[in-house]
Every structure is written in structure tokens, then in C-alpha cells.
Request: fold
Amino acid sequence: MQNFLIGLGVGVVLAIVLVVVMSVKRHKEMLAVKQETERLKRMLTDRMDLESEGLSKLKEQNEDLKKQNENLRISLSTYSQKPGRKEVARLHVYQLAVDRLTINSPGFGAAWQAALKESEDEFQKTYVGVQPFIKRLIPIKTDAAVLPRTVETEER
Reply:
């Protein structure tokens, strides 16, 4: 019976040692899993923060681009309505008409070229000498209605 108790004691001690070793090993594994879980959570949080920041920056850029687009649209609309735009468009129409008349009418070309040369010479003289100075002081009035009359200008 004494051998039995000695064997039982050795077996119980071995079982306790085995249980302690297994529990320590299991505890280490649990800590490793917990650390890995925490590391993955941190990585996920960091990634979500980065993506959130990137998405917010993209939204801000999108809003800025929308504002710039609207400002450019308004500027273009305003620019096209500035004084002189209609006159420039009218000059383009006149130039096309003159080009067509020059091609289609045989006598018009020579008369047009002579009138154009005289007008260019006169215009060049406005940049040299006393004539430009006088023209700056005294505006030239013409009978041609370049700008359409509005109600405000008629009332004055």
C-alpha cells in the first residue's frame, strides 16, 4: 500500500506539474492572441482614420472645384456681357461679309482694298504726331450708332 501511495503521489505531482505547465503555456498563447488582436485593432483604426481623412480631403477638394467651376461660369457669363463683346462679334460678322463680297463681286475687291489702305494709313497717323494728342483731348463723335440706346440714356 505504501508503494501505491508513493505511485499515486508521484502521479499527482506529475499531473499538477503538467497542469501548471499547460496553464502557463495556454496563458502565454492567450496573451499572444490578445496582443495580436490589439495590434490588428490598432492597424484597422489607423487605416480607417487615414481613409476617413483622405475621403474628407477629397470631399473638400470636390467642393472647392465645384465653387471654382461656378465662379468660372459666372466670370465667363460676366465677361461675355462686358461692353465691347457685342461690337467685336459684330466686327467678325462684318469681316466675313467683306470676305464673301471680295470673292463674289469682281469690282468690290479693288475698291475695298483702296478704301482699306486709306483707312489704315489714317489710323496709323493717329499714333504719331499732334493728331493723337488732339484726339485724346477732343473725342470724335460719329453718326454711327455703335452701342444700342437704352431707356436710361434716352431719359438723360
